[in-house]
Amino acid sequence: MGAPALKIRTVTLDLWGTLLLDGPGSDNRYKKRRMADFNTILTSAVGARVTAAALDRAYEESGAYLARLWSQYRDVPVEEHVRAILAALDAGLPRRVTAEVMTMLVDAYARPALLVPPAVDDGALGALKTLAARGYTLALVSNIMRTPGATLRKLLERYQLLGCFTHTTFSDEVGVRKPDPEIFALTLRAVGGEPAAAVHVGDDEILDVHGAHRAGMRSIQVTSLSPARLGAQRPDDVIPRLAALPAAIERLES
Question: What is the Cα–Cα distance from 197 to 203, expressed in whole angstroms?
Fold first, then answer.
């Protein structure tokens, strides 16, 4: 028989599709607002005349750049997203934009999720408070899409969730994305956790379940699927929503 699993001391959670009910693809709904603001800023501050069609193409080109990067499980700050959009509009435009204008563009790119926030799991706060009261260390491990970690922390604070976490890790700030085990490892190092005494909670079979297992952690998948319908990457337990998380952790420790 193998050695018994260590008592769970650290619980890490995913953001999109887990704490937030909206999946990561929902970030793309902010495209129209972002590009309208870009048009206003570029016209007034740089004198650059750009059409809606050109901005749409530039946004999609930046998406292709990000997809190539993300396929290698790597990430960059959202300033690089903005530079990619500018370069797609005009190769010389990034050099003509002042630091002040760049700050304005990055803010316009980052803030839409605060203006039209995604829905949150209404059982999340209660579950996190229960786990914290039981002595678990809580941390967040999240890939971003186009909304940066700095904005997502503000969103978590609005939902009164940020204070539940000892540490939050966002891919744009550390340069690595799930399912690379390094993003889990650096999060555990930040809170003094050990993989064998940690469990990760998330909705994605590859990013969360496979990624956590590669990092030596246990996993709980948030899904409406029955265990019989799960994919090849099998979690250690499944829950439909976060309200069921404290009981799932009890099961793993029983």
Answer: 20
pLDDT in tens, 68-100: 999 999 999 999 999 999 999 999 999 999 999
User: 10 Å Cβ neighbour count for 61?
Assistant: 15
pTM: 0.93
pLDDT score recorded for residue 233: 78
Prior bond to 4 cis, omega within 30? Answer: no
Give pLDDT tens digits for 25-63.
Answer: 788 889 999 999 999 999 998 887 899 999 999 999 999
Cα(76)–Cα(79) distance, integer angstroms? 8
Q: Do the beta carbons of residue 169 and residue 140 sit within 8 Å?
A: yes
Residue found under tokens 């004198």: 47
**How far is the C-alpha of 1 from the C-alpha of 55, rounded, in Å?**
60
Q: Is 119 left (phi over 0), alpha (psi -120 to 50) or beta?
A: beta
Which residue type occupies 200? H
Give CA–CA dist 86/89, Å, rounded.
5
Grouping H, G, I as helix, E, B as strand and the rest as coil, residue 141 is strand
Per-residue pLDDT tens over the stretch 1-24: 445 567 999 999 999 999 998 877
Backbone angles phi, psi at 24, to 5 degrees: -60, -30
- Measured CA to CA, the distance from residue 148 to residue 30 in angstroms comes to 13
Rounded Cα–Cα distance for residues 132 and 28 (Å): 33
26 residue type, one letter: S
Terminal C-alpha separation, the chain: 17
Q: Is 47 left (phi over 0), alpha (psi -120 to 50) or beta?
A: left
